[in-house]
């Protein structure tokens, strides 16, 4: 799935060429996972192993790769480097300065690997939310109004957006209700990865996936994701369906 997704997204003839077109000569690669709900969804380890292995085959040695919000023992197993700790320079969020995570600021290239799940406050957690409230020092300040417009404010800043090279949404399993941290009864198998360069477009597609699955399951309560609409309106990415190119790649297995 990783190989097919990268090749189709980049239009390259091989997986290695695809990864090199995305990451270039990056020396400090950060892969940002999501620890919230990770124990229930239980797909991070498998995806991380495949992803690190694919990067290594493409010429990116493991000492150039840092895993963020992955289990510590997994990083030791895979031999990846330790991400930078602490905080650095600031951006303005909600009219006040917020320090950025040092692991973001050190990165030449960041691969965003969120889950796809519901979120009691924000409506949904996907590509945008996986970074916005993880790379600033005081995320708890920015949950009013369903996290709008704060999510888009963070992701839309050059210091953040310039480092995001690729998003791979881990939709191998979906958390269809009671997220972002729930129980196995709220998780279903889905067996899909979403690849893209535009996190707003990816979340727009992801939201439709969640809504469709919830409808199939007879879950009728509404999901509103105000931060996604705000990010689209602010020009952070493409929100309207007619502006989004979606290519479906089916795997025989």
Query: What's the architecture in CATH terms?
Result: 3-Layer(aba) Sandwich
Oligomer: single chain
According to CATH, what is the topology?
Rossmann fold
State the share of residues found in helices, binned by percent: 25-40%
Radius of gyration, CA atoms, in whole angstroms: 17 Å
What fraction of residues sit in β-strands? 15-25%
Kindly name the structural category. alpha/beta
Overall domain count: 1
Inertia-based shape: globular
Tally the helices.
11
Distance between the termini: 10 Å
Which CATH top level class fits?
Alpha Beta
Average of pLDDT: 97
**Unreliable spans:** none
Give the full name of the CATH homologous superfamily.
Answer: LarA, N-terminal domain
Largest sheet: 7 strands, mixed
Tally of extended strands? 9
Keywords summarizing the entry:
alpha/beta, 9 strands, 35% helix, two-stranded antiparallel sheet, 11 helices, 7-stranded mixed beta sheet, 253 residues, Rossmann fold
Task: Please give a structural write-up.
The protein is α/β, with parallel strands linked by helices and 253 residues long. The chain has one domain (2-243): 3-Layer(aba) Sandwich (Rossmann fold). 35% of the residues lie in helices and 22% in strands. It has 11 helices and 9 strands. The strands form 2 sheets. Strands 1, 2, 5, 6, 7, 8 and 9 form a 7-stranded mixed β-sheet that branches. A two-stranded antiparallel ribbon has the order 3-4. α1 (2-10) packs across α2. The longest helix is centred in the C-terminal third of the chain and has 18 residues, at 199-216. It is globular, with a radius of gyration of 17 Å.
